[in-house]
Design goal:
This protein has 2 helices and 12 strands, in the order E-E-E-E-E-H-E-H-E-E-E-E-E-E. The protein has about 160 residues and is mostly beta strands. The protein has a 6-stranded antiparallel β-barrel with strand order 1-2-5-4-3-6. A 6-stranded mixed beta sheet has the order 10-9-8-7-12-11, with no helix packed on it. The longest helix has 6 residues. The radius of gyration is 18 Å and the shape is elongated.
Length: about 160
């Protein structure tokens, strides 16, 4: 859902760069999961508000700037069961990561390793014999089959 980018003030508030369609979407969740090494810890949200394109939040147990600094760079998530359902043609990024990418000529291009937000459209980072950047737009994406674990694209192997 986002990443804690920096402390905000001196009283334990943090600034969060959201990975959501709208920054205010994070405000709907009263508890966030914050990465802690190889594990995730639930952190109740005492207060949060939109601040420009970011969210600033006060998490329970984060009482001063030093505690907020310790959270810098940590990912923020919410339990999957709490997320709203998707409409036809909509996908959560987490569902796309790891899927195989195959072009119209049945050539395997690799697997989706990450997704970039560019402003104009999202871009799939596909890692195979080399890295490819494939725009996630209707003109390129032919089919997303989550059950089969495959994304079919109109994209040449030599692009």
């Amino acid at each position: 859902m986002g990443r804690i980018s920096a402390p905000f003030g001196v009283r334990g508030w943090v600034k969060v760069q959201p990975n959501t369609a709208a920054a205010q979407n994070l405000l709907a969740y009263k508890t966030w999961w914050v990465e802690d090494g190889d594990e995730w810890r639930d952190r109740p949200v005492a207060q949060a508000k939109v601040h420009g394109r970011t969210v600033v939040a006060k998490l329970d147990g984060c009482e001063d700037r030093d505690a907020a600094i310790a959270l810098r760079g940590k990912l923020v998530a919410v339990p999957r069961a709490e997320l709203p359902g998707t409409q036809s043609g909509e996908y959560y990024w987490a569902d796309l990561i790891g899927l195989a990418v195959v072009n119209e000529s049945a050539q395997a291009l690799g697997r989706i390793s990450s997704i970039l937000q560019t402003g104009a459209n999202d871009v799939l980072v596909v890692t195979g014999e080399r890295e490819r950047l494939i725009p996630f737009i209707a003109a390129v994406i032919r089919d997303v089959d989550l059950g089969a674990g495959v994304v079919r694209v109109e994209w040449g192997a030599d692009y």
